[in-house]
Amino acid sequence: MTAAATTPKGERRRAELIEAAASLLAEGGFDAVRHRAVAERAGLPLASTTYYFDSLEELVTAAVEHHANQELETGRTKLDELATRNRGVEATVDLVLDMLLGPLRPDREADAEAVLLRYERLVGTGRRPYLRPLMRTLSAQLYELLHEIFARSGTPVDAAELERLVALVDGAVVNALIEVDPEPRAAAARMLQAALA
To answer: Which segments constitute the HTH tetR-type domain (predicted)?
Structure first.
């Protein structure tokens, strides 16, 4: 991080750029995060991206971390609601899928596209070695939250079982995407519900 981001104005501008980059990442994947696009989305001069970030890699890393932390925070909030309201299998499956596939979009086509983009991003991190340390940290936090979701839902799972359930969801989604299934989330939900029944 550059020294320019240590002032209140600098911190605010840096945060605006990260927010813009995170939204572009979610909408269009890694290729969408470019200096010009981020600056335009944030409503800031093009030079601000290189002023507040030493490289595009640093900006992408900050965007990935920001996006993931938002999703984890949303998941924790939903878990608190789940623990006080509905603890059925369907509610558990919905929350787990929100954490693994992202939030459900109201339109079926938009949801399928968002899931596809998410998996493209996840696979794309393998081609970006600079993201690997962050992805290990975020993955550990996600698995910790998933453990808590299952435990509070009355279906505690150990590490091996959680890994199997996540692989089951990933397999169902990838298979649905290959078959051009318009509802990859529904395919994953069926598999996960069957596994938890």
So the answer is: 11-71
